[in-house]
Amino acid sequence: MADIFREIDEEVRRDKAAELWKKYGTFITALVVLAVLGVAGWQFWLHRELQASQAVGAKLEEALKASRDNRGAEAESILVELSANAPAGYRQIARFRLAAETAKRDATAGATAFDGLANDATLDQLYRDLARLRAGMLRVDLVPYTEIRTALEPLATPQGVWRHSAREFLGIAAMKANLFDDAGRWFDAIVTDPASPQVLRQRTDLYLALVRGGPVQTKN
């Protein structure tokens, strides 16, 4: 009897399955086809994205090599193209590299290029602050200490990500202006910060030796 009931149950299930297939088979087939096409399309898109990324990466490496080989004009030309047309991540790298490359031939123009990045609201604040730091570093030999202080002091706070470099260049700018008290305060901030890198501490020891010596007196 159990075998008979099992056969009847299986027959009923087959009938129901046939009925459901007759009613929804076309729809199910269409869904399967769409799913297959979707996966294939996704894989194709990933493949194309990978190819594009590799091509852009190769162009960026070409620009960096041109820069290392002192072919600045060629490097700038490639970086200008990437800054305009590369995917977002590569475009940002290219813009920073282009500003740095510009600074190698013209510090003022390079600082202005970094200003553009610092004022770009589409960038994360971390990178805007980095651009502001780079612009200030370039201007240490170009503008008065007061301008350097205005630009870099907000980056030199105890919580600032870029505080170590900001303090160093504030100290250097103060020394160049013969403001040795200011320079000493910035260098002391480096020494007393437990997170200051060791190599920076070593440089700061040299700076502080110069600060203690004070301005060099020359005879007329």
TrEMBL record:
Designated name of the protein: Ancillary SecYEG translocon subunit/Cell division coordinator CpoB TPR domain-containing protein
Domain (Ancillary SecYEG translocon subunit/Cell division coordinator CpoB TPR) ranges: 20-181
Annotated membrane topology: Single-pass membrane protein
Chief location category: membrane
GO terms under cellular component: plasma membrane
Name of one Pfam family that matches: TPR_21
Location of the protein in the cell: Cell membrane; Membrane
Gene Ontology MF terms: protein-containing complex binding
The keyword Transmembrane is annotated on this UniProt entry: yes
PANTHER family attached to this UniProt entry: ANCILLARY SECYEG TRANSLOCON SUBUNIT (PTHR38035:SF1), UPF0070 PROTEIN YFGM (PTHR38035)
Annotated signal peptide: none
Membrane-spanning residues: 24-45
UniProt keywords, alphabetically: Cell membrane, Chaperone, Membrane, Transmembrane, Transmembrane helix
InterPro entries: SecYEG/CpoB_TPR, YfgM
Highest taxon of the lineage: Bacteria
